[in-house]
Structures are given as structure tokens and as C-alpha cells.
Amino acid sequence: MGEPILKAADVPTGLPANKQEAVVKSELDVDGVTWNVTCVSMGNPHCVTFGLLVDELNLAEIGPKFEHHVMFPARTNTEFVQVCSPSHLKMRVWERGAGATLACGTGACATVVAAVLEGRAGRKCTVDLPGGPLEIEWREENNHIYMTGPAEVVFYGSVAL
Ligand SMILES: N[C@H](CCC[C@H](N)C(=O)O)C(=O)O
To answer: From the record, what ranges are coiled-coil (predicted)?
Structure first.
């Protein structure tokens, strides 16, 4: 999946960098509620927030408020993450331009990077998404992220042209 981009201006986010050039566990005000977020680009912008029971989240209500927040000039994908253990994360995603989806590979990678930066998890995690689990590893020796998961037929279709 390549290397994460952490420099705030390149994510991009207007939140000020607080860990070298990165935005890690920073306060973001969303309609009067303060969230702690870590911002990661995987070539596309991600905002990751931890500490929730993700099943209880009203994603359709809160997701668009992150996506269109003034601190994300290119809008953002947002991952809402529950830490089950230091090697097991559970995540729901609101995708920029798409809304709630069953899975997001770049989002799972951004989630592990954010979890490592926040000291919540190790570099190798299982990330549970609504569509199933992915194995993500952010390797220290080369800074690259590796994603492993099954490839399965979901449906067949045909289109008359
Ligand atoms: N679905 C893709 C990411 C699409 C993200 C898109 N919503 C964006 O705004 O860049 C994935 O699995 O990584």
C-alpha cells in the first residue's frame, strides 16, 4: 500500500501539527463536540478517531460532518475505531464521496498507522470491517504498509451496450 504521508499540509488538514509534522490525537470540534483525531494520507485523506463502541455510532449523521469539516480542505475519509486489543481493531468508515461502505483498504491502513502513532496498538493488527477482517502491517524497516485479505467473488453481472 506504500508509505503513509503524515505532514499536515500534505494530508491535507488545517489542524496544526503537534508530533513533528503530523497531527496526532488532536482536538477537532465537530458541531460543539470535541473529538480526538489523527490525520493520515495514504494518497487520499483519512481522519481516524478512537475510543468508541462503533456499533452504537450513528455514522450517517456524524460522517458527513467530518467529511465536509473546514479543517479538511480536500474533504476526508473518516475511520471510527474501537480498540479490542493492541493487535485487534474494529472499524467503521465514512468514505469521502461514497458514505458508509463495507470496507476501505486505505482506511484500514490509515487506522493502524494512527493506532501506532497514538500508542494504542502494535504495527501488525487485524482490522475488522463490516465486510470482514484485513491483516495490516506497517513495517518499521521500510515504512511501507502491507495489507493481506481474501479476494472473493461478490457478484456476476452483465450490461447490454
Ligand atoms: N475504497 C478505497 C478508498 C476510496 C477512498 C475514497 N473515498 C477517497 O475519498 O479517496 C479503498 O478501499 O482504499
So the answer is: none
